Amino acid sequence: MPVDLAASARIIAAAHRDTPGGLLPALHAVQDALGHVPPAAVPGIAEEFNLSRAEVHGVLTYYHHFRSTAPAPRVLQVCRAEACQAMGADALLAHAQQRLGCGLHGRSADGGVTLEAAYCLGLCASSPAVMLNDEVHARMTPERLDELLGTEVPA
Ligand code: FES
Which family, according to the similarity comment (predicted)? Predict the structure, then answer.
Protein backbone atom coordinates (compact mmCIF):
# COMPACT_ATOMS: atom_id res chain seq x y z
CA MET A 1 0.00 0.00 0.00
CA PRO A 2 1.62 3.23 -1.06
CA VAL A 3 1.89 5.56 1.90
CA ASP A 4 0.78 8.54 -0.16
CA LEU A 5 -2.58 6.89 -0.95
CA ALA A 6 -3.39 6.73 2.75
CA ALA A 7 -2.13 10.28 3.15
CA SER A 8 -4.29 11.44 0.26
CA ALA A 9 -7.31 9.76 1.81
CA ARG A 10 -6.64 11.50 5.10
CA ILE A 11 -6.38 14.91 3.45
CA ILE A 12 -9.64 14.33 1.55
CA ALA A 13 -11.40 13.12 4.68
CA ALA A 14 -10.10 16.01 6.78
CA ALA A 15 -12.10 18.46 4.68
CA HIS A 16 -15.24 17.03 6.34
CA ARG A 17 -13.83 16.85 9.86
CA ASP A 18 -15.71 19.84 11.21
CA THR A 19 -19.04 18.93 9.62
CA PRO A 20 -21.55 17.26 11.96
CA GLY A 21 -21.95 13.69 10.74
CA GLY A 22 -19.03 14.29 8.42
CA LEU A 23 -17.58 10.78 8.46
CA LEU A 24 -19.94 9.39 5.85
CA PRO A 25 -19.44 12.26 3.38
CA ALA A 26 -15.72 11.97 4.02
CA LEU A 27 -15.69 8.28 3.15
CA HIS A 28 -17.73 8.98 0.02
CA ALA A 29 -15.29 11.70 -0.98
CA VAL A 30 -12.34 9.36 -0.49
CA GLN A 31 -13.93 6.64 -2.59
CA ASP A 32 -14.96 9.12 -5.28
CA ALA A 33 -11.38 10.35 -5.51
CA LEU A 34 -9.47 7.09 -5.13
CA GLY A 35 -11.98 4.49 -6.30
CA HIS A 36 -11.90 2.80 -2.91
CA VAL A 37 -11.16 3.42 0.75
CA PRO A 38 -7.79 1.78 1.39
CA PRO A 39 -7.60 -0.12 4.69
CA ALA A 40 -4.31 1.67 5.40
CA ALA A 41 -6.23 4.95 5.36
CA VAL A 42 -8.52 3.95 8.23
CA PRO A 43 -6.17 4.95 11.10
CA GLY A 44 -5.65 8.45 9.69
CA ILE A 45 -9.34 8.96 9.01
CA ALA A 46 -10.17 7.74 12.52
CA GLU A 47 -7.74 10.27 13.98
CA GLU A 48 -9.24 13.10 11.95
CA PHE A 49 -12.69 12.32 13.36
CA ASN A 50 -11.49 11.42 16.84
CA LEU A 51 -12.95 7.94 16.45
CA SER A 52 -11.52 4.49 16.95
CA ARG A 53 -10.35 2.48 13.95
CA ALA A 54 -13.06 -0.02 14.76
CA GLU A 55 -15.74 2.66 14.48
CA VAL A 56 -14.54 3.74 11.04
CA HIS A 57 -14.17 0.11 9.98
CA GLY A 58 -17.71 -0.53 11.21
CA VAL A 59 -19.10 2.21 8.99
CA LEU A 60 -17.12 0.98 6.00
CA THR A 61 -18.37 -2.56 6.37
CA TYR A 62 -21.96 -1.57 7.15
CA TYR A 63 -22.43 0.19 3.81
CA HIS A 64 -22.01 -2.15 0.86
CA HIS A 65 -21.14 0.87 -1.28
CA PHE A 66 -17.61 1.14 0.07
CA ARG A 67 -14.77 -0.84 -1.48
CA SER A 68 -11.52 -1.71 0.26
CA THR A 69 -9.65 -2.52 -2.95
CA ALA A 70 -9.28 -0.64 -6.20
CA PRO A 71 -11.94 -1.55 -8.74
CA ALA A 72 -11.34 -2.76 -12.28
CA PRO A 73 -11.46 -0.18 -15.09
CA ARG A 74 -15.17 -0.94 -15.50
CA VAL A 75 -17.61 -1.40 -12.62
CA LEU A 76 -20.88 -3.20 -13.32
CA GLN A 77 -23.56 -2.85 -10.68
CA VAL A 78 -26.64 -5.04 -10.92
CA CYS A 79 -29.62 -3.71 -8.96
CA ARG A 80 -30.93 -6.21 -6.43
CA ALA A 81 -33.64 -4.12 -4.82
CA GLU A 82 -37.29 -5.09 -4.79
CA ALA A 83 -38.57 -3.87 -8.15
CA CYS A 84 -35.61 -5.29 -10.01
CA GLN A 85 -35.83 -8.55 -8.07
CA ALA A 86 -39.43 -8.87 -9.23
CA MET A 87 -38.32 -8.38 -12.83
CA GLY A 88 -35.56 -10.97 -12.93
CA ALA A 89 -32.54 -9.33 -11.29
CA ASP A 90 -31.38 -12.65 -9.83
CA ALA A 91 -31.25 -14.29 -13.24
CA LEU A 92 -29.51 -11.23 -14.64
CA LEU A 93 -26.93 -11.33 -11.87
CA ALA A 94 -26.37 -15.05 -12.42
CA HIS A 95 -25.82 -14.34 -16.11
CA ALA A 96 -23.36 -11.56 -15.31
CA GLN A 97 -21.45 -13.84 -12.94
CA GLN A 98 -21.24 -16.57 -15.52
CA ARG A 99 -20.20 -14.23 -18.30
CA LEU A 100 -17.59 -12.43 -16.22
CA GLY A 101 -16.36 -15.55 -14.45
CA CYS A 102 -16.55 -14.02 -10.98
CA GLY A 103 -18.88 -13.60 -8.05
CA LEU A 104 -20.25 -10.46 -6.48
CA HIS A 105 -17.48 -8.09 -5.39
CA GLY A 106 -15.11 -9.98 -7.65
CA ARG A 107 -13.22 -9.14 -10.81
CA SER A 108 -13.90 -10.68 -14.17
CA ALA A 109 -11.55 -13.38 -15.38
CA ASP A 110 -9.82 -10.84 -17.66
CA GLY A 111 -9.51 -8.32 -14.83
CA GLY A 112 -11.48 -5.68 -16.71
CA VAL A 113 -14.75 -5.57 -14.79
CA THR A 114 -15.66 -5.45 -11.11
CA LEU A 115 -19.10 -6.89 -10.38
CA GLU A 116 -21.12 -5.30 -7.60
CA ALA A 117 -24.69 -5.15 -6.36
CA ALA A 118 -26.70 -1.96 -6.13
CA TYR A 119 -29.85 -1.38 -4.10
CA CYS A 120 -32.02 0.81 -6.33
CA LEU A 121 -30.65 2.83 -9.18
CA GLY A 122 -33.75 4.99 -9.49
CA LEU A 123 -35.13 3.14 -12.50
CA CYS A 124 -37.66 0.96 -10.70
CA ALA A 125 -40.36 1.55 -13.34
CA SER A 126 -37.98 0.28 -16.01
CA SER A 127 -36.41 -2.59 -14.15
CA PRO A 128 -34.28 -4.57 -14.09
CA ALA A 129 -31.53 -2.00 -14.11
CA VAL A 130 -27.76 -2.03 -14.12
CA MET A 131 -25.11 0.66 -13.97
CA LEU A 132 -21.85 0.46 -15.86
CA ASN A 133 -19.30 3.08 -14.89
CA ASP A 134 -21.91 5.53 -13.60
CA GLU A 135 -24.18 5.13 -16.62
CA VAL A 136 -27.53 3.50 -15.85
CA HIS A 137 -29.27 1.11 -18.23
CA ALA A 138 -32.91 0.12 -17.88
CA ARG A 139 -34.94 -2.92 -18.95
CA MET A 140 -31.80 -5.00 -19.01
CA THR A 141 -31.77 -8.51 -20.42
CA PRO A 142 -28.93 -11.03 -20.53
CA GLU A 143 -28.58 -10.35 -24.26
CA ARG A 144 -28.39 -6.59 -23.79
CA LEU A 145 -25.93 -7.06 -20.96
CA ASP A 146 -23.68 -9.09 -23.25
CA GLU A 147 -23.84 -6.28 -25.80
CA LEU A 148 -23.10 -3.68 -23.18
CA LEU A 149 -20.10 -5.54 -21.84
CA GLY A 150 -18.86 -6.43 -25.27
CA THR A 151 -18.97 -2.99 -26.80
CA GLU A 152 -18.17 -0.63 -23.96
CA VAL A 153 -14.72 0.91 -24.26
CA PRO A 154 -12.73 0.58 -21.03
CA ALA A 155 -12.35 3.88 -19.17
S1 FES B 1 -35.28 -1.41 -7.55
FE2 FES B 1 -33.83 -1.52 -9.14
S3 FES B 1 -33.83 0.49 -9.90
FE4 FES B 1 -35.13 0.63 -8.18
Answer: Belongs to the complex I 24 kDa subunit family.
